Structure formats: C-alpha cells, structure tokens
Amino acid sequence: MLKYIKKYPFSLLIIAAVIYLSFFKPPSVEVISRIPHFDKVVHFCMYCGMSGILWLEFLWGQRRYHAPMWHVWVGATLCPILFSGVVELLQEYCTTYRGGDWADFAANTLGVLAASLFSFYVLRPLINSRQKTVSTENRAPQ
Fold first, then answer.
1. Is 88 inside any structural domain?
2. Quick one: pLDDT at residue 13?
C-alpha cells in the first residue's frame, strides 16, 4: 500500500476528493440550477482530472519502473470507469439525497476517455521526448 502512496500521491488525493464530492450533500444553489446540464460538465471535469493525473503519474514514474503500457490503460482508464459506475450505484441505493444517473455515468466515462486519449497521444510523446533529451544530455562526451 505504501508503494502506491509514494508512486501516486496526487492521484490518491484526487480520488479522495471525487469520493467526497460524490457523496456529500450539496447545497441548493439557484444560479447553478439554471444552467442546463452544469452537473454533467462537473462530472466530466472530475473524472477527466482523475484519469489525467493517474496517467501523468504513471508516465512520469514509468521512467524509473518500466511498467508495461497496458497497466496504465487498466489503471487510468478502465478502473475510473468502473469506479464511476460503482459510485453511481451507491448514490442510487445507499443515499437518500443523491441518485444514480446514466447521464452522469456517461459524462464520467467521456471525461476518462478524453483524458486517456489526450494523455496517450499528447502527454506520452512529450514525456518520452523529454526523457530522451535528458538522457542524451547526460551522456559523457566521446
């Protein structure tokens, strides 16, 4: 367990924040309730942030641990989607003030997929090119 705390400290904080935000009793805010689908934007952002931080910490740590890429696809894409489904079910069946919603689940899933695609096609090449640049700079002159 301590290994994961050291490798993914920001991810664990984001996951804790998502859990808190998913189960606390929100205040009634009149201005926000007038914006259509505002809660879906919030769901998208929460899960996009969670998946994005998981990807970032994995890619950054991969430089030292050389873990296979399928680990990040499972840990930063599949697990947040499953986590989202469990949260929606718990909101529906274990709380009286929140309800599970398929549209929330869809927004969560889209957030995870957006972060995963961005991380794979943009962040991964940036981190890999930076790693190659740093490793070539650290070589002794011949």
1. yes
2. 96
